[in-house]
Design goal:
homotetramer, 277 residues, mainly alpha, 3-stranded antiparallel sheet, globular
């Protein structure tokens, strides 16, 4: 593929918007070289997502694992801010696209970033594995320096609500199956499990892998760069955000606030006062 | 399911956020009654989307058609404002979730609403079909009143760039196949084709069905309410928006403007002047 | 100013982004013809807002009224969805700009559109005033056809929470003062008051003007087109949204949901079930 | 004011949404203790912004400087991504609030963060000034460690387009005037100027203070915490974003892309290919 200077000093306006993803002529659309009419009906949604992000079609087992990760994280209920935001927005007289965007917009470092951070952590451990150390030792070293740096929570492990997140063991089971079938290496599943075991030794209690840790295992096994773990989570959670925005639309309501209408917040500020003269 | 008064006069805070979609207990998550660990690995992404929006699992043929519609509309290149917006946002120091949200936010009545409007139009025609008239006559009557009301464009038909949108005939072919297999009725495909034929007679030239018209046929065949045609399009286009935001991230750039850096807009306003005294 | 064809058939890339608002050369920035270094220190924020929207500087009395409208609507507390959304977003690991955008995004037809709709209503009445009818009669006629069309609420009148919105009478008092000083005509204040009186006769109880009705009087007196009533409200409410997002940032919290963490929503959906075989 | 535990273990739903900013009773609204009907007409927009963010009313000179900073940064033309995004969104069939939100959403670390980063830098220098060193020495030391840490650009200094940003010297002149009048200390103006001088020695050419550096001087002189420098910039730039979205609405267009309709992006990806069997 042609190399372009970073800041488009080619001077051509068209080059300012260059892309490897899509080409068009009148009557013709190609994604990564494939004609759309050939893709339609022959390539599934998860395969299309892979093709768009990665540039090549996935193997069948890869597409299946990606699809599993995507379907597993669609929703965590109206207490999740992304969901609540979309439900409230849906009562404010905006389109479903706007309600959806408002919810996705909140999937930031804290609400949507754990998967990305977990992939980063796994990759840091994976990079050390070439030095032939024992995996337990490597993980302990990485966790040590992680906690020494002032971090409190290991991304992808522990859950405020679920003692064991029911999604994680099921997802790992399916990664194992794919590893047995030679579709992935299983290295990241091993890394994830070693972190869990190491954390238990370190903290004296089990802090089990959660949905973010488990989908991060899948995304890392599949070779996605860390930031796309967040991106793919956004695609996944969009489904729940849309479902809730639509349910709220049907329930009705206008300008839905966070708590029932007859309740008011607690005011903790300055007592009533007059303007100074 | 329990009926609730519209404005939550139950007084219970928990009822203010009532939902049919998801239930949770510590260690347990159920969507529409199904446990997540059972869904994972047994239900595909398109089936999960259907379950979340509709409340029940789809038949296999229905899920296949939904998946086809979703994968067919992921991207239309950087000239589409939703894509361009996300690419520019991705250079501004925000997260991928924010870039994605900015793109989706633009999929409004004009950019993302054609599918929704097409489903509405199809449904208006479908409602008249119970009166046993000839479909050609019904369509002509509906189009007549559509144009008389001052509308200029029939949503889902015609394309600025493609003489024939390569996605539409392929999508209709797959609807026909599903109708032959008894998975859908094929009524909406017939309505769509009749609109196309009617438009050609009315305008004296072919104005072929486009992607929005064709996916609207699928969504209507599958029984989705019109607003979800927009919602599902947003899920679909999210894929392209994310792929482009990510490609732009890799290309680099800071504060990417719409045209190359060394170009400037044309100023058409008041000539230089001094402030009045 | 040069006229340009609607769809930029000039062919020049620079013309695609033509504007009357701002011109730049290296070392020089002009808004509406005025050099920025002259504007700074000589023109207030409200005057600058007027200049940007309208193309000319306002008279002193006009700028004062605009400033009053802008400062009067900054906040209505955390039960307003726009405020709650921004506070929740601020705990999700996004920037203040993203939290602010999420809140503003919700100021749609229902949450932020009453002022725009009120200006439209006032203008419909104002247009009829040229026919020399009595204002009471005109208002009654317009309200009659408004209710006959199926509308239930008159935009800008009545309030769920406040029996009398304390902002409205104070704002009208200041419009009266400006009318007495010849800075505005006072016609829209008269229209607003006549609507209030007419509504009381029609409904048998007082439905007093609220903040949206009162700021709409100001925006209409100042000649702003109706859509800018919403736009200016967004500028105003941005202040409250930012203040709350910032307060929430300081209060801390991660992934703040709408109700306290230990509470859960009411599930009203399908009872637990197994996947079909 | 009452202290609340961080995570609302008071158990009261109302406390979950506690705030120091606003209190309401039916018919009564108070901001920071002041009744709205007293504020209206007596307190300007900039003073209201200060009150909302800071909790107390500003002195007159403080309000004037804040107003100057807010009015000085409203717009930098359609090549700025925030402006271009809003103009494109305005043609997509969404509300002005949505177009505005899309633009503001892009004011991230790169597009909207320079002011915040400059305040942080100034404060780092200011903190060292208590150690009685010469300001030149302190600044050089801080810049040294700033560049050693791999940073390339000093936030608030230098401009891609303007050899000298015409806003900066004018803003500094007004800060000097306020310092002479005893309204601010002038320490941050001194810090900013010392950075400029130091940079010139270090780099061998002048890299003059820009708008972000100059407004950061003002925000720091006024005691705003660094993140609010970004927040206040968002309020300021909102004005330009709204003005451009509105101008675009009047110019018309549907689904405005970044470059004229008859142009296409450069495709740099895989050549046409067939699906593998």
């Amino acid at each position: 593929m042609t190399k372009h200077p970073r800041d488009n000093t080619t001077g051509k306006v068209e080059d300012w918007w260059r892309t490897d993803i899509i080409d068009m002529k009148p009557g013709e659309i190609r994604y990564r070289g494939y004609a759309i009419e050939e893709l339609i009906g022959n390539v599934g949604f998860a395969e299309m997502i892979w093709l768009m992000m990665r540039g090549e079609l996935p193997a069948k087992g890869q597409a299946e694992l990606l699809e599993i990760a995507l379907m597993s994280a669609v929703d965590h209920g109206p207490q999740a801010p992304g969901i609540a935001i979309a439900r409230m927005a849906a009562t404010c007289g905006v389109g479903l696209n706007n309600a959806l965007a408002s919810g996705i917009n909140a999937l930031g470092d804290v609400h949507g970033g754990a998967g990305e951070q977990a992939v980063d952590l796994y990759n840091a451990i994976r990079a050390d594995m070439n030095n032939e150390d024992d995996l337990d030792l490597i993980v302990e070293r990485v966790l040590d320096s992680f906690f020494s740096a002032g971090n409190k929570y290991v991304p992808g492990f522990g859950h405020r609500f679920h003692p064991v997140d029911p999604r994680a063991p099921r997802l790992l089971e399916l990664v194992d199956r794919a590893a047995d079938a030679g579709q992935v290496t299983g290295e990241y599943a091993a890394i994830g499990r070693t972190i869990e075991a190491s954390l238990e030794r370190l903290k004296g209690r089990r802090i089990p892998m959660n949905i973010d840790g488990a989908t991060a295992v899948i995304y890392a096994e599949l070779g996605f760069p860390a930031p796309l773990a967040r991106g793919l989570f956004c695609l996944s959670r969009s489904v729940g955000i849309l479902a809730h925005a639509w349910e709220q639309t049907q329930q009705g309501g206008r300008n839905k606030g966070p708590i029932p209408r007859d309740m008011k917040w607690t005011y903790t500020g300055h007592p009533p006062r007059k303007l100074p003269d």
